[in-house]
Write a sequence for this structure.
């Protein structure tokens, strides 16, 4: 079987779904099902990546992905950058309002923003009102359901263990975050947040795709802390 | 130095505070400060256990505790049992009301109940409205502050990672729980909750004293699941 034009070399672990598929280190998505194509020999498999039209085909032990259109990866990057930027804007807005720390989160369903929230710890006198928990609560209220398995969440910063737990409990399918936890710790936040690093593997195993922004996305997210640190009361 | 009458052999790790002091496997409290008593030789130390008048003295490498009154341990057990029973009653109440799963939590400050809450996931269409998160939010609202460092929390069941995170963020000083997470998993809850086991060591290091109920306290807490499993909608 020849590779279709415009495909890239895809890396898949040799295990049953769910698993994370990546191209050149960039996570494409969580593969939830693989169908064997018996006409093409025993090494050929077809997998569907949720949220895209990509078809994955194995070919003599190597695997390629035929995207539905050229530049699929770039489109995913652009889309992620757009929603992550919105989460970063929320982080600034939260500090401007005096509502809490510089953290924002956006819940997206079918390319539409469901809710866009920021940290409300000070405003609501509630230590659990982190941006992600607030966004999940608001999205569930708005959509009238307790599970968000058709949604993604974009967070300006790596979630803390409480927020990772909330993302898991809400069954959100995909998390994209901007700044590393260490960027928040560097301006004085509890290093408890970095425990999320330990949790990442666990949550990925639990069917949640997790993507750390890179390049400009990571940069604008990490700048939030330096740019706001004089403007809010640390708690 | 002779041990005072009515004292018990106390086990303390040979490290600097904070650390957890225990007698015969029963956790007494988190020791936050140790003062050396130079008159009594280099091996003697006096430590104060927060929330009690206990004085801890080391004696040639062994350490004894002189309680402020005989039966101190029994009083702590009785007190813990009283508040844990209230948390268990909340778990049943939550199911009776149809508000959510069979989980209850009580926040206590200076021997007084601040709030007594149960799981509100179904009632509020909110996957983050676990009993502990709800209790912390309500206690903060009632006390008008975002940190509960003078409070304890009693939970009918071992907290999930999200709730452990919320307890940590609220700076609650002491957690007493009844049922092991496995008792909830046995009736069908997400085994995500058992990840808390991994977290216990981490949270203890972070100045939170954690006590697992034993005997009758554990029994009544674990019975909650068997007794309610037909009465609520699993989510």
């Amino acid at each position: 079987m020849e590779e279709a034009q415009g495909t890239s070399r895809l890396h898949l672990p040799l295990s049953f779904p769910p698993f994370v598929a990546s191209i050149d280190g960039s996570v494409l998505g969580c593969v939830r099902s693989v169908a064997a194509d018996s006409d093409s020999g025993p090494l050929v498999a077809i997998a569907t990546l949720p949220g895209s039209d990509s078809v994955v085909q194995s070919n003599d032990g190597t695997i390629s992905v035929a995207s539905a259109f050229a530049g699929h990866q770039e489109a995913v990057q652009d889309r992620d950058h757009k929603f992550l930027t919105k989460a970063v804007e929320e982080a600034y807005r939260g500090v401007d309002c005096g509502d809490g720390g510089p953290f924002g989160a956006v819940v997206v369903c079918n390319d539409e923003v469901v809710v866009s929230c920021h940290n409300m710890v000070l405003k609501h006198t509630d230590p659990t009102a982190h941006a992600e928990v607030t966004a999940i609560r608001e999205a569930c209220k708005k959509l009238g359901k307790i599970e968000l398995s058709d949604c993604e969440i974009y967070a300006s910063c790596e979630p803390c263990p409480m927020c990772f737990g909330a993302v898991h409990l809400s069954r959100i399918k995909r998390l994209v975050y901007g700044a590393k936890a260490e960027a928040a710790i560097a301006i004085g936040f509890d290093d408890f947040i970095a425990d999320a690093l330990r949790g990442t593997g666990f949550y990925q195993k639990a069917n949640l795709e997790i993507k750390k922004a890179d390049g400009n996305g990571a940069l604008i997210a990490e700048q939030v802390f330096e740019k706001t640190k004089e403007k809010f009361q640390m708690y």
